[in-house]
Amino acid sequence: MKTLTLIALTSLVMMLTGCSPSPDELEEPTAEPESQADLVLTGGTVISVDDDIGQAEAVAILEGHILAVGSAEEIELTIGEDTEVIDLDGRTLTPGFIEGHGHFLGLGNARMMLDLRPARSFDEIVDQVAEAVAEAEPGAWIIGRGWHQERWDPAPEIAYDGVPSHHELSEVSPDNPVLLTHASGHASFANAAALAAAGIDADSEDPDGGTIVRDDEGQPTGFLRQAAQLDVRRAHSEAEQAMSDEERQAVFERQVELAGDEALAHGVTSFHDQGSSFADIEGFKRLAEQGRLPIRLHVAVRGESNADMDRKLPDYRMVGHAGHFLTVRAIKRQIDGALGTHGAWLLEPYSDKPDTAGLPQTPLDELRETAEIALRHGFQLNTHAIGDRGNRETLDLYEQLFAEHDETDLRWRIEHAQNLHPDDVPRFAELGVIASMQGIHATSDGPWVPQRLGTERARERAYVWRSLLDAGATICNGTDVPVEPISPIASYHASVTRQMDDGEQFFPEQSMDRMEALKSYTIDCARAVFEEDLLGSITPGKLADLVVLDRNILAVDDDELAATEVDMTVLGGHVVFVRE
Questions:
Q1: Average pLDDT for 259-287
Q2: How far from 176 is each of 141, 188, 228, 361, CA to CA, in Å?
């Protein structure tokens, strides 16, 4: 165990208090540091994720920053009359978890709608909607999220692309439009009232990048893939326009509050939001300046036209705003869809749907224009790419632009990077592209991925973390919440075990080791947003964002790992969550 000497401790205290030590002071350190810690956590295992420090026993915090890391005896020197001391009692302290890819308002919104993730049959979803209709006003929209047809057992007897027609849903909700979003977010299911509100009928044409799934008679089933969702979403948005500005603001603040509570309860202290509109960013800015953002947000701009971004990005660029609670310097775009809805863009057709190789979402010339705008304004580009074709096209574009502009260390990202041709794996490290991946997706999707890709293609290309790490790439982990629950522990467990719900392992040769997985949730996610000097490890001088776990995730057996609990979350030196 490496510890901090008293000389280094004294120097750090002076740095934080605005003083510089003289040579004499360094040669003859005083018996105690000149400032005492605000908070000390001691008596446990401190996993610093700092290779120069390793593991320790205690941490001291001053003015929201790490003051010192070391043995219990050394850190005791920082304790004064006003120091709060927390006995870890053998528990484990790690850096605060960084959610590398999620949808912050989507998380809050998911807590305000039907949660369809537990449903194991379409009948269960119909029952949930019926209960909601009984409580709703006539004409009010019923909104839900989280269903996945591959989780239904038994599967529907009559189905179209694995999903039944809307008739049962329309029967229990004849007067209330129903819009139920797929777990991936890349498809939705609508009842008759919602289809009518959107003007979708048998004569409607499929939009570019989308499919209106139809029954044998050509009638819409209610299953809307990719861009085909947009008309129903617009109809729902128009219905919400009846709210007053005050009501909309109240909903926004409630979403922020619920998302923050959920994140902190899971040890998440920073969140990479992928992404938000200019209007929502303005809301985040107001809350940040009022000290009301519950966690640190790193927001990517999304849903704005290239023309508007080129004009407005300079006004919205913020780095470390309001005490490092809000950073906006990324753009989010989407080149393809999701594997579960046959929307991911593949190099070869789907094994279970050979008439398609996916649904490209953004024309390459439009994506290139976005990339030029990002370069012009000093923004990262975060591109959603799931299929191996989508990833290759994105890497090709990045490589061309980097060479044309002679740029290095831009840390542009590919969000998800779920299916990679082996030839493209080393390109991530060569180009300095961040692989923003979600460990939990591999084990959640694992049972049906071989159906989509075939066993050998899945083995070679799906969620190839080990191959990426061995090639020298940086992986930033996450959950894609609300697609998956915001649980770093669940995603960490998936990353190191690749164990699915049935106990089988999804190509375990691609697993990370324990420390690699922890770094992917801490220092490597900090590096993915240029904040490795501020966050991601328990290092003197960094922001004091910490998590107390009830067990040592580097040491417990695999079968204990998933049961790990977050006992406490510290944000900027303040205890913001304690498990009851």
A1: 97
A2: 6, 16, 20, 31
Sign of CA dihedral 147, 149, 152, 158: positive
Number of Cβ within a 10 Å radius of residue 354? 9
- Asked if 310 contacts 373 with a C-beta cutoff of 8 angstroms, the reply is yes
Q: 413, 530 in Cβ contact below 8 A?
A: no
Q: Any bridge partners for residue 566, and if so which?
A: 549
Helix axes 364-377, 306-316, angle to 10 degrees: 20
CA–CA separation, 213 vs 219, rounded Å? 8
d(CA 154, CA 137): 33
CA 412 to chain CA centroid, nearest Å: 16
3-state SS assignment for residue 41: strand
User: CA angle, corner 63, sides to 57 and 67, nearest 5?
Assistant: 30
SS3 254: helix
Q: In the structure encoding, which two tokens stand for residue 495, read together?
A: 């990353």
Question: Pairing between strand 296-301 and 326-334?
Answer: parallel
The DSSP element (H or E) to which 371 belongs, if any, is: helix 364-377
Residues in contact with 64: Cβ distance below 8 Å, sequence separation at least 6, in sequence order: 543, 544, 572, 573, 574
Mean predicted confidence (pLDDT) in 109-118:
88
Residue 387 has what DSSP assignment? S
Q: How far apart are the first and last CA of the chain?
A: 32
Which domains occur in the chain, in start order?
1-95+536-580 (2.30.40.10), 104-240 (3.10.310.70)
- Other beta carbons within 10 Å of 202: 11
Smallest CA-to-CA distance from 358 within 335, 381, 379 is with: 335
Q: What is the pTM of this model?
A: 0.84
Asked if residue 210 lies in contact with residue 228, where contact means CB atoms within 8 angstroms, the answer is: yes
The two structure tokens encoding residue 451: 């159906």
Res. 548 pLDDT band, cuts 50 70 90 = very high
Going by C-alpha positions, the residue among 522, 498, 509 that lies closest to residue 440 is 498
Beta bridge partners of 327: 298
Q: Check whether the bond before 177 is cis (ω within 30° of 0).
A: no
Q: Alpha-carbon torsion 536, 539, 544, 549, what sign?
A: positive
Structure tokens, 362: 């953004």
String of DSSP letters for 186-235: SEEEE-HHHHHHHT--TTPPPPTTEEEEE-TTS-EEEEEEEGGGHHHHHH
Per-residue confidence (pLDDT) for residue 192, from 0 to 100: 95
Rounded Cα distance, 462 and 506, in Å: 10
* Burial label, 286 (beta-carbon count in 10 A; 0-12, 13-18, 19+): middle
pLDDT of residue 21: 37
Question: Per-residue pLDDT tens for 139-149?
Answer: 889 999 889 99
- On the question of pLDDT at 7 being above 60, the answer is no
Q: What are phi and psi for residue 52, nearest 5 degrees?
A: -80, -15
Secondary element (H or E) of residue 6: helix 6-16
What digits encode the pLDDT tens for the residues 444-464?
Answer: 999 999 999 999 999 999 999
Please check whether residue 300 is in contact with residue 327, taking contact to mean a CB–CB distance below 8 angstroms. Answer: no
> Which value, to the nearest 10 degrees, does the dihedral of the CA atoms of residues 259, 434, 145, 461 take?
-150
